[in-house]
Amino acid sequence: MKSNLTIAFLTSTDPNDKRSWSGIHYCMYNSLKNNFVTVDVIGPIDGFLLKSIGIVNKISRFLFNKGYNHNNSIVRSYLLSLTINKRINKKKYDIIFAPASSSEVAFIKTNAKIIYLSDSSFGQLNGYYDVFSNLFKFSSKESNYIEQKAIDKSDYFIYPSKWAANYIVQNYGVDEQNVSVIPFGANINNEDIVYLEKEISNKTPITLLFLGVEWLRKGGDLVFKTFEMLLENGCDINLIVCGCVPPVSHPKMTVYPFLNKNNKEDFATFNTILSQTHFLFLPSKAECFGIVFCEASAYGIPSITTNTGGIPNAVYDGINGYCLDVNASPKEYYNTIVQLIEDKEKYKALSKSSRALYLNKLNWENWANEVAEIISKISNNNKS
């Protein structure tokens, strides 16, 4: 039975657009609608001034090789608040749910309880992700100010990993009792997933999948070196690269520069790729969580990745894959993959437990149910 609590879903983008925050906003919004009668969308918020702020970053990168984090600027945050305040004050809301919306929250005025969700925080990403690195000093201070202001204004916090949750407790003065860790889900409708039980054999071709937009950050160089090592040692391996055009090529490597899951033909191709894949191989050098690991688990595909950022809350060693040290060599990845190729029963069990983890934990229904419990608890505390 749906709750009658009124929820404002606060983003400056449109959560009905599957491209918003790489589809995460869309999945969160639609999952919450299954638990609450009223989930009002506050975005999108457009405007010439908001869009023009981004030009500053492009100019500064070109002229000074320094970045300006315009998305977390004081000017942008204040301009957003002018529109947001008008929209949220037209109606009495019990909860304002703000996913990845620090700039949207920082300057708003409301009596409603605010739940702030993100996959990390600016202080944690500064120097970890390239896009948040090499910024002007004033931009770093400004971005951290917006993050702190949004956190100070919020009442409860949800992150998909302990890595991100622990950071705000230790660095932004948040009470750990007001923080929950709830992993994200796969950005694919369950009914659209073509799940087939996976089997492996060193007598039949094996497929590795690299699925990501950023070749270097996602460890594409390590993938290719390991792929070559497997071939050199007699393994019948195919490599599929999806989401980017790598700076290398090979006769046994197939590249799909971009697949739009909203397009029926592209999604059919995506489904075919994952139904034939044996390993998701993504040794990321920096990662906040990784929705792609949830998607791999949905298809029963074990993930081979690194122990960095929030990945250990998406990939559990021996259950839906393995997290190697972030400095692991191609030889170490080679050994991990070969051991699973040579032990088909171990691989089969790993594939089954990957699928089970998706069904029990790494899905949006589970996420929404846990969030709904938090919302109900906050609302009850507010009444007492």
UniProtKB/TrEMBL annotation:
Regions annotated as coiled coil: none
CDD domains named among the record's database cross-references: GT4_PimA-like
Gene3D superfamilies recorded: Glycogen Phosphorylase B (3.40.50.2000)
Keyword tags: Transferase
Location of the Glycosyl transferase family domain: 198-355
Domain of life: Bacteria
Domain Glycosyltransferase subfamily 4-like N-terminal positions: 69-188
The keyword Ligase appears for this protein: no
UniProt protein name: Glycosyltransferase
Organism whose genome encodes this protein: Flavobacterium cheonanense
